[in-house]
Amino acid sequence: MNSKEHLDKLAKRKAEAQLGGGQKRIDKQHSLGRMTARERIETLLDPGTFEEFDMFKIHRCREFGMGDTIFPGDGVVTGYGTVDGRLVYVYAQDFTVLGGSLSETLSEKICKVMDLAMKNGAPVIGLNDSGGARIQEGIESLAGYTEIFQRNVMSSGVVPQISAIFGPCAGGAVYSPALTDYIIMVKNNSYMFLTGPKVVKSVMYEDVTVEQLGGADMHSSRSGVCDYAAESEVDAINYVKRLLSFVPQNNMESPPPVPCEDPANRNGAALNEIIPENPNAAYDMKKVIMETVDNNDFFEVKADFAPNIIVGFARYNGVSVGIVANQPANLSGVLDIDSSIKGARFVRFCDCFNIPVITFVDVPGFMPGTVQEYGGVIRNGAKMLYAYAEATIPKITIITRKAYGGAYCVMSSKHLRGDINYSWPTGEIAVMGAKGAAEVLYARQAKSAENPAQFLASKEKEYHDLVANPYVAAQRGYIDDIIEPAATRFKIIKALKTLENKRDTNPMKKHGNIPL
Predict the structure, then answer these.
(1) Which candidate in 79, 171, 322, 427 is catalytic?
(2) Is 171 considered catalytic here?
(3) Fewest CB atoms within 10 Å of the CB: 54, 330, 339, 392?
């Protein structure tokens, strides 16, 4: 066989491998509004940068007729390329090959790119579209899943891990995405659950659809499993690319800075008027965030889950930061079980990857009631406290209005190693609101007063003037400065600059025991 014949053979074998399960199955995938595995990779990576591994790898199962069902590549496309010029490793399950079901060899392919990502310090992106474990392989398939899980855990906090779900993801398959940093799903096209509707009906006697049980809308708003419910596959992939732009390659690096033409000293005059005169009136904290960040550009994460707290990424003078903010426009910005979990996980991700955290505080406290107490608001609220206390990244806090009780402590207070803590003049820092405090402190006197309402109103003002303002905290050094709201952007940028070489440490230990 001469050189040309060898090359022709190679080209033919590659063309066969690139067809996956065949043209008919590709057409079926397209008819469902879904891209193929290779099309998804092409959409994600910079043109011409994809280098594939194990294109010719096949499964080793010969039982149950599997010897007659062999496809080169065996249901997953793996390799590396670049996104905006930065190295990433990627695997995309191919539903056209045996439903993308996981075999021992398919697991080996995924594990190879995960190992390389760890060695080379680059993010791993999994594009999931699989019917689950390959039943014909039995324990080999289960072992394959678990090998991936082990690498997810070892990679956690070392390289960013992102999962995009483009089709089914059920049973044990859900746990690899669950162990990654971010999960993106596609509305009406992808779903995740441990047990399907048929099992739920037979065991629990519940009638539920696939979408109700594990669709993107449910997981993005109720369970919190999903970080973003995309409108389409292209939307999901663009979200992944944008997310990558804010994070570093690995835990030894910082996020890449970008050129910024937005003036550092841009005056946010609108912020001087944003706090309502009525202390119980709502306002939108997103407007505060937008007014301060570069180019009014805020990339929100988990927007539909626990909207009483806001988390996401932005930049200040080109420097990537994570933002955590109470949202007075939703449940008055109160902390509860879901918002505590959401905030804590985000802070811990930022701490893993050297991303400074800016915290905007307007919190009246923790949510009261039996639902919260029975659900473990104490344990879950402690997660937020733990995350901030453990974090060694730069931490800058802006108190815009209320900072009451334990919620003040939790929201990146000076006492949790907050580096620079500012308050607006409208800040109210106290154990509780002035009205509630007056009613507790002067309940007996009010009963005997000639005009109880007027008496309590005077005591409320007295409490506010004496305690519930930022000046008392500033006198103790718990607030570094009381700033004009319009200057918030400039103050944050200066603070980030002075903290860029910050070094902080935790005691030597294997790991802490966060209250899970």
Answers:
(1) 171
(2) yes
(3) 392
